[in-house]
Amino acid sequence: MSAWSSVTLQYRFHQLTNGFYQTVLPTPLQLPEWVDWNSELAELLSLPKEPSPQLLSEFSGQILPDEFRPIAMKYAGHQFGQYNPDLGDGRGLLVAEIKAKNNLTYDVHIKGAGLTPFSRQGDGRAVLRSSIREYLCSEALYYLGIPTSRALGLINSRTPVYREKTETGAICIRVAESHIRFGHFEHFFYTGQHDQLKQLLDFCIDHYFVASQKTEKPYLSMFEQVVMSTAQLIAKWNAFGFAHGVLNTDNMSILGQTFDFGPFGFLDAYQPNYICNHSDYQGRYAFSNQPNIGLWNLTALAHALSPFIERSDLDSALENYEPELNQEYSRLMRNKTGLNTKQPQDGELFNQLFTLMAENKTDYTRFFRQLSMLDQDNEQAILDLFIDRSKAKQWLDRYLKRVEQESESIQQRCQAMRSFNPKYILRNHLAQIAIDRAEEGDYSEVKVLMELLKNPYEEQPKFDHYSNLPPSWAQELEISCSS
Ligand code: AMP
Ligand code: MG
Questions:
Q1: What range defines the domain where residue 381 resides?
Q2: Residues 6+ apart with CB under 8 A from 464
């Protein structure tokens, strides 16, 4: 029986005509093999819990099942502030949409499936290294509670792919409610194809912003929601210490989900100007600049929607961005510190903490996790995260005094805080160890990390060392932008 017989398939995007995509067959990978298969997500999609040779042939492009209608989407976008009209799916194909058990419909996209008309100078491939990073990080964010595309499976092969050295071609099976990016709208706007621009807006409203249909100005209502969801997403990234790395408008999902993983990084030491992308010489996509860039990107989207939404309405919608981002960020930071009531001095308490953490290069994730263990007599472990312990002690005493004004017991507060402060995150060095082993043919570490990161907030004693500070070699890790 085919793995697809129990799956409900849809082809909604395929119904858009005139320049939205091109039909492209995948170029098969040579000697593909499964690196990992995400059983939980497979189950949600009504696919088998176990990966099979049949599914391997289908997802690696060796066999085209009747259920797949592979297309490469056309889009454009602003890359590092410059408009590039020539983008599109250059190495990934949307093969089908699946109606899942939760009643949501998900796009299934194979990233690394070979050349398309939008490949430009590229080879249409994705290497194992970057595919492992996307596979692990998208699931890690999902389990942290950050909106994101997801990953159903990961395939490696013997197809040689040339980057700085010869690597192997891989396919990450990406699953997302939508693959529509800000850059889709920019493409139709800048080419003057306003009929298509309108079709795309109507498509989004019909499928993703259904509630907007009933409003007086459906397009505006949709844009307002994009503004809000983008603000909330970026607030979450910054509260969790996540830097995306390449916030070009073609990597911005219309649904406010983390999308297109490249040289991303979680903060180890707190460093507001952390730049994870080594090609980002100006620091345009530095950690602390993500909120500004979110607004820049939304402004680019607003411009592309200007034929259908009045300028003054677009401007008022954009004005909601900053307050929404600040409100969400402050909510998250209050959760992380257990400060449920608002007191006039709280802002100063947070500012002092961030200054102290930056000066002391304090590990961001470990600090907040330790702060949520104060019910276990761990003051010293907190102070040990700082070079200047006496200053840290001053801050901690202030904090301890402040939390006395909260009504919960210390146990209640710490227990709640542990559900907001992960113990395990996908640190760069952990991903790198899994990559190094996988490149030698051993995929076990990818599977270990996948299991670990599914429960980031739980103590997992046998994996305790995965929460350790990064080893010294990790400081020299440069994540290549070539993927
Ligand atoms: P990214 O940096 O992955 O967001 O990609 C930016 C643009 O370059 C998109 O249009 C991609 O499809 C395209 N692209 C990236 N890598 C490749 C590749 N190896 N072959 C073809 N196109 C690529
Ligand atoms: Mg991209």
A1: 338-418
A2: none
